[in-house]
Specification:
Length: 198
């Protein structure tokens, strides 16, 4: 791990892996060191705003191989598995479309971090056969609520946007509402399940 200053009151912790970044985030959340104003986890990083000295001291002595588990919030999303890349995902995984749906719905996912667009959560826990590359040519328009996968992640597009993830299906859940409290449905550490609806 390596620290980099970000202005006067923040620092970025560069981690060796996604697991290490998640463990650092969970450790700081559980300890609540004084002075911390905000934590922004990334795929291999953790931005700490305020209380940087206290967080550095905490993490120097922390056992990141065994981070605090906490009690994650659980979210279940209803999905219509009719995505335009379902057949491609099945073919590349060497399984049937029905097996893709079964594997995607049987797994329990964890929100590792958020980004790309407000409310977009990068969910880990994707079964190995579903870990597939992004599309060679991204779409210029992906509808809001589209459920996709790319690499080690699955996720849901909170609003219409360009995107290169392979699309499995669609949910009608609202992932981001600026007038809600909190505005984003997903927060790092949350557990997510997908339920097949026809």
């Amino acid at each position: 791990m390596r620290w980099r200053r970000c202005g006067e009151d923040a620092a970025l912790l560069d981690c060796d892996s996604l697991d290490q970044a998640r463990a650092a985030h969970a450790t700081v959340l559980a300890a609540r060191p004084p002075g911390v104003v905000d934590l922004v986890p990334g795929a291999r990083s953790l931005l700490v705003v305020g209380g940087v000295a206290a967080v550095r001291a905490l993490l120097e002595d922390a056992d990141l191989a065994h981070p605090p588990a906490g009690e994650p919030r659980e979210v279940t999303l209803d999905v219509r598995y009719d995505g335009e890349d379902l057949a491609l995902i099945a073919a590349d995984g060497g399984i049937s479309p029905e097996a893709v749906v079964a594997m995607h719905t049987e797994a329990v996912y964890t929100v590792a971090f958020t980004g790309f667009a407000p409310g977009f959560g990068y969910l880990t826990g994707l079964p190995p056969q579903l870990r597939q590359p992004r599309l060679e040519s991204p779409r210029t328009r992906v509808p809001a609520g589209s459920v996709g996968l790319a690499g080690e992640f699955t996720g849901v597009y909170p609003r219409e946007s360009p995107g290169g993830w392979r699309l499995l299906g669609h949910t009608s859940a609202t992932l981001f509402d600026p007038h809600a409290d909190p505005p984003a449905l997903f927060a790092p550490g949350d557990r997510v399940r997908f339920r097949n609806v026809r």
